[in-house]
Design a protein that fits this description.
heterodimer, A: about 400 residues, alpha+beta, 2 domains, 6-stranded mixed β-barrel, 11 helices, about 55% helix, about 15% strand, B: about 250 residues, alpha/beta, Rossmann fold, 6-stranded mixed β-sheet, 4-stranded antiparallel β-sheet, 6 helices
Chain lengths: ~400, ~250
């Protein structure tokens, strides 16, 4: 073992505290950024996968190809007849349309504007399964619920939508109509969904008569044992023909839930990837910094290198000493970077939860910490290679003469 | 007749100083035998340091050959040479050349590190030699916490720890007061007498010649005189041929 050589390296790092600290700081920042970003990326991916597992592979969405929020493209709608047609396609177990609108919700003297969804009370179980949330307080919408409303999770909370959180049985006005609150959904984890208002089909149609039979989007469930990917294609083909649209110019698309989440996941991955690339620039800068520190150290210790060579150090001994030293600088930066990245991520996760994005939570698997520390060590050691080679190639006589 | 431990054969060393070639040592022939106490003496600029570097296998001659235990060092690769040098030659320098960040013990352990001696053994041996030089109670001190004489004793301990056949000392008393200097010289003499170490010492101090049993004089890069010192008792009385170049 090279215990003495390691100790010599470490003692030099301690001996030059300020310089070591500054060098460590530079790599710390890069590792911290990378660790924080990846912990969030992993957290989001994890959340998306959980959703996919909960919803199951058999869910499909029929929605507008437009760029608007799901269900809000006014040029696109699915009719009840479209849905009847889809339900008759081989492999489709059931289908239900969702109305989407915007409304003014009034509680006391306060007003809020949020999305209003119209649900088919007969399909409530199916909708809950597809959306992976269910009513957690009170009850679901039922047939004949006219002036009863189910609200999103955030209406329960103080200082979220209204100053005071609402309770079951309280009254609110929606677009001028009085309603009694019969239920609250559990938390989804983002402020849009948690601010939704849910009405029955009948109530929605009476409040928005021009939207009657014009569903914003539709949920479809495949029969057990049917390949959802293939089914999505079949539905697309048949519906295109029925609606008389050209191939490639459809106003709609059918996507499996898994695909949808995967697309979302890919977008997140790309964003996180870009951010990591930016963070990598700081690692490159840190690497240059380590190299600079090590070149200075080699120059400073030229005489010591000469002494060590005189008393028997081989080139590889000198090489080891300086690469190890650079690697340790990197590793210390890595360890501190992981610690500070953990703190930053945790704080950011807490802030995200506080503003309603409880789904946006970092996760901290052990392999992320280990990977970051190893990466920092490798970057450090790699940055030390050139300076160490310069050190190891010194001629003992020249090095000894150096003052 | 014993074989020379170090042999310089027609050795020249030239340095490039700008556009001029300076010959620091020219045409030197020198055989150093096991057990000798040899002093290489000469005024400054006579090529002593260059000579010492070559005798110590730290430098390779521009012309000629240096043999260490019969092997031509210019044919060895640098790492092998370092390894052999570490086993065969212990260095003592004028300015001690200890490593400032290491304790006395760690400084003495260092040469064994490069010979891959196991860690436990390194500690035991390093303690032993530090006790031998009278510094058993100073092993945890850094060089800056030691006096000049103590530092030189640490350096001597370091030179001895691999049990080399040859101790090469470059002005070992140059930075010491005269009393401490005498102690160091007595210790070297003892090493020569009792442990049969070959001592090669480079100095400009003519007073130190009395400790030697052979004195080689350098002038302007050439060996001008190679005399056996009759007052000293060589532990290895072999016949030598000093070659003189005037």
């Amino acid at each position: 073992m090279r215990a003495d050589e390691m100790r010599y390296s470490l003692q030099n790092l301690v001996h030059r505290k300020t310089r070591s600290f500054l060098t460590v700081l530079s790599i710390l920042i890069g590792v911290m950024a990378i660790y924080a970003l990846i912990s969030f990326g992993l957290g989001i991916n994890n959340y998306v996968n959980t959703l996919a597992d909960e919803a199951g592979a058999s869910m499909l969405f029929l929605m507008s190809k437009g760029a608007a929020a799901p269900g809000m493209d006014t040029n696109f709608y699915v009719t009840g007849a479209d849905l009847d047609f889809v339900e008759r396609i081989n492999g489709v177990s059931q289908a239900t349309g969702m109305y989407m609108g915007v409304g003014e919700i009034v509680s006391g003297k306060e007003k809020a504007y949020n999305f209003i969804a119209g649900l088919d009370p007969d399909s409530i179980d199916f909708i809950d399964r597809a959306m992976t949330v269910k009513v957690d307080k009170g009850r679901n919408l039922e047939d004949g619920d006219m002036n009863n409303v189910v609200l999103g999770y955030n209406y329960l909370l103080d200082d979220k939508i209204f100053k005071r959180g609402l309770r079951l049985g309280e009254r609110v006005e929606i677009n001028g109509e009085p309603f009694s609150i019969v239920g609250f959904y559990e938390e989804v984890g983002n402020p849009q969904d948690d601010g939704n208002v849910y009405l029955s089909f009948d109530m929605f149609e009476s409040m928005f008569p021009d939207k009657a039979d014009k569903f914003g989007y539709a949920l479809i469930e495949a029969d057990k044992g049917t390949d959802p990917e293939g089914l999505a294609k079949t539905i697309e083909d048949k519906l295109r023909k029925r609606r008389g649209e050209d191939v490639g110019k459809e106003s709609f698309y059918v996507q499996t839930y898994a695909d949808l989440l995967e697309t979302f996941g890919t977008v997140i991955d790309v964003i996180v990837g870009m951010l990591i690339l930016i963070a990598l620039i700081s690692v490159v800068v840190a690497s240059v910094n380590i190299m600079n520190t090590m070149y200075t150290a080699v120059l400073e210790r030229t005489k010591e290198i000469g002494i060590m060579k005189a008393i028997g150090a081989r080139n590889e001994d000198i090489l080891f000493i300086f690469i190890f030293e650079a690697g340790v600088l990197g590793m210390i930066g890595g360890v501190l970077g992981v610690l500070s990245g953990y703190l930053v991520s945790s704080a950011a996760g807490a802030i995200a939860a506080a503003v309603g994005y409880s789904a946006l939570q970092p996760i901290f698997p052990w392999y992320l910490s280990a990977g970051c520390i190893l990466f920092a060590f490798v970057v450090g050691a790699g940055s030390g290679v050139l300076p160490a080679m310069q050190a190891s190639r010194q001629q003992p006589v020249d090095a000894l003469r150096y003052e | 007749m014993a074989h020379p431990i170090i042999r310089l054969k027609d050795v020249c060393k030239t340095y490039q100083m700008g556009e001029v070639n300076v010959m620091a040592v020219c045409n030197a022939n020198l055989d150093i035998y096991p057990g000798e106490f040899l002093v290489i003496e000469g005024p400054s600029g006579s090529g002593k340091s260059t000579m010492m570097n070559m005798v110590g296998c730290l430098d390779i001659p521009t012309e000629g050959h240096i043999f260490l235990n019969g092997d031509d060092i210019s044919e060895m690769d640098e790492s092998d040479l370092a390894q052999i040098r570490g086993q065969t030659i212990g260095f003592i320098f004028q300015n001690f050349n200890l490593i400032a960040t290491l304790t006395a013990l760690e400084n003495v352990m260092l040469p064994m590190t490069f010979q891959d001696v196991p860690h436990e053994e390194r500690i035991v041996k390093a303690r032993e030699v530090l006790e031998l030089v009278g510094l058993g109670d100073r092993i945890g001190h850094k060089p800056t916490e030691l006096s000049g004489g103590q530092q030189q004793r640490v350096a001597i301990a370091r030179s001895l720890v691999n049990d080399p056949d040859v101790i090469l000392a470059d002005e070992p008393t140059g930075n010491l007061d005269s009393k401490t200097g005498i102690n160091v010289m007595e210790f070297m003499k003892k090493l020569n007498r009792e442990k049969h170490k070959t001592i090669i010492m480079v100095t400009h101090d003519q007073n130190l010649a009395k400790y030697a049993d052979r004195v080689v004089y350098l002038k302007d890069g050439a060996i001008v005189k190679d005399t056996k010192n009759n007052h000293a008792h060589s532990s290895n009385p072999t016949s030598r041929r000093g070659e003189s170049h005037a």
